[in-house]
Amino acid sequence: MPPSLTVDDFKMIRAVCELRYANAYLIYDRTGHVFHSIRDSFTDLRVVDANPTQSAALADEGRFGLEVGQCRFTTDKPDTRLEGFAAHCKRFFDVVADCLEVRMFTRVGLRVFFRRDCRDLEESRKMLNSLQLLNLPSTVRFGASAEADEVMVRWEGSQVGALLRLKAESGKIDVILPPELELEQASAPLHKAINGVVLDVDYYTVAPVERAQWDATAWIPQAIRSVKKEAESILSR
What we know:
The chain is of the alpha+beta class. The chain has 4 helices and 11 strands, in the order βαββββαββαββββα. The protein has a 9-stranded antiparallel sheet with strand order 2-3-4-5-1-7-10-9-8, with helices on one face. It is elongated and about 60 Å long.
């Protein structure tokens, strides 16, 4: 029987903050100004995709998405309390809101991904099902399996909502190094298996939020504290 899980058993592997707003058509004229304004605030910023309605950029700190009705910042190296992440979000979002003259956010969301590594898919499934999140007898369902591979639950009120997903995952990464590196392994692909239980939580606002009343550096650290607290109560019940 796999041991009980707590949030501390998982490693945070990704954080995404996304703002949605009414279509901001100034994007057609001011996308360049947005990235020009933030380039000194991030390391090695470069635009990798640009078109009239959406653009994407990369920096050492993370990835930027800018669209006519939303923008987001993503990092795959989040700090535990998301304070550094929140500072990067504030810089980007403030510039976007100023340049596109956004005064109201229709949705503010923080999505965080955690993973608990396992030996293989079988162990991942057993760990997920040991949490007993579904009040169902263990029996083969739909002729497929007696164990669930994924569980999703949503809670939504008048002000905020949350979607929690737990999934047993199995995959692999294949990397082929170029021969010009002149390494012994350059001619052979590198393989890495990834098995584990992924905890994915999307915490978001339901009611509109005035731009003047929202600050990423205050909201994001508070949001991640709420996410961890509630996830802990679910995992350790």
